[in-house]
């Protein structure tokens, strides 16, 4: 649009100044939108695999295991899945929550719902964050 106006070769300098100001403002808006798009694209999705080895859990106990994940944000939605088809947490132990409490930290929370102490073995988990 501005190219057409310039090509018309307007002699009215006030009109030309107004169009230049408008063009500058539009460019600022476009640059801001482009920066916001880059920021949004930089937030994910993320995918990776981490090894988790929870400590022994006494009856009714819960524990958290934190893993560093570069680029993970507190605003991400997160899903995690155990990668060993032969693995069992034990009937009494559940992986209750996976979330990002602070940027760069993936937290797995486990709970022992049984009556006995349980030593949960180390296993690989795949996470997706978007």
Radius of gyration: 27 Å
- Class per helix and strand makeup: alpha+beta
- Sum up the overall morphology in one term: rod-shaped
Order of helices and strands: HHEEEEEE
Give the amount of beta strand, in percent: 25-35%
Number of helices: 2
Helical fraction equals 25-40%
Total strand count, please? 6
Mean pLDDT: 82
Total domains, how many? 2
Q: Provide the spatial order of strands within the biggest beta sheet.
A: 1-6-3
Main β sheet profile: 3 strands, antiparallel
Distance between the termini: 38 Å
Spans of at least 5 consecutive residues with low confidence:
none
List keywords for this structure.
6 strands, three-stranded antiparallel sheet, 130 residues, 2 domains, rod-shaped, alpha+beta
